[in-house]
User: Fold this.
Amino acid sequence: MENTAKSHKAVHHLQKIQQKKPVAKKTIITIGSIIVMLGIGVTFYFTNRIEKFFWEARTSSVAEVVHELVIHYLKKGDVDNWQNAESNARLAEFAKEAMHFIPSAATIKIYSNDGILAWTDLKHVQSGYQKPESDGQLAQVRTNKKMIMPAGETTKDELGKESLLEVWSIMDDHDGNMIGYFEIYFDTSDIQTFINEIKYSIWVIILTMLGIVLVLIKLAFREQDIRIIEQAEYLNGIIEQSPIGIYTVNTNGFIESYNPAMMRIHDIADTNEAIGKNVFDAVAYQKNGLDKLLLSGLGGVSFETEVEVESSLGAHKKTYRHYYGVPLKNPAGDVEHLLVMVEDITDRKELERKVTDHAEDLETNINERTKVLQEKIGELERFQRLTVDREIRMTELKQEIEKLRVKLESFGVKSDTI
Assistant:
């Protein structure tokens, strides 16, 4: 029983080791993927925050510069009277100074309150073009006092710059009255380079952390692998030395391993005589129904049974074996192998038969002794009845004699004469 318990425990540990095999690789891949995803998220978040902060600050400074330039260079009505030569000249001077004082400015557009383009130096659009109110841009600028958006491809092609950003804001006079809109195109290549440097720095830090984490995980799993190998060797020793026959079957029914006890049970000298054979081809298994149990085991259902097998010692010699099948599953729950333990229980069955026979003989003897005892009890009861009847008659006789004695004495006859 102790050896059986050890073998069952070994099977349990073998199942756990079977399931641990792919865990380390999957864990490393999962952790690495999580770190990479976090790195992408962190990079995207921080670069967007930095870029937004930069443009918010630049927009505020641009609005202040434009306000000062409006007060210094423009007169009341210049934007609305853009077709006037003097007004147009002041708008051009204003734009020139704005380009000079605002860093990275590539070009500028000036719109009236009605959305009419009052001044621009771009070739693909002419002054007098009215921006439709329906596109919502002017309303957004009026509400938020500013708007930032990517430049159009036509403007990029004309200026020959790939990294352009539009910054919209309103133009106020010295009294704070709105006199129009300005749209400045910024060359963002220097800012983009700065943002990319930040991205690269973050990625270097993340990749360094990823490398350190993966190395530490690898070292940790290497220790785990060593322990798993030690456990596997220990369990393999238990299986090899177990007095219980143990063999494994793959999902196609072919025998993959055979321990020494199994070789003794089947009376074979070399494991090659059994390894590679298909259990479903065994006639003995088909006769006693083991083929169906093995099939259910490969389907994921454990089984335990006792069967009578043909003995090599002759037809009159019965051999009994106890079979215990355990499916070995991977972490996904799919059966990869079936482990079968076989124990020759012929001696136990013979002992059980002898115990049964002895119990039957004992019961027969008890019944016979009970019968004899019952007969003796009957005789005693009959003897008792005879003895009791005799006592009763003697008592009655004494009573009659006493009556006669009293009667005689009444006639004057003394009792001592009787």
About this structure: The chain has three domains: 34-196, 245-344, 364-417. The first strand starts at residue 105 and ends at 111. Residues 43 and 49 are 10 Å apart (CA to CA).
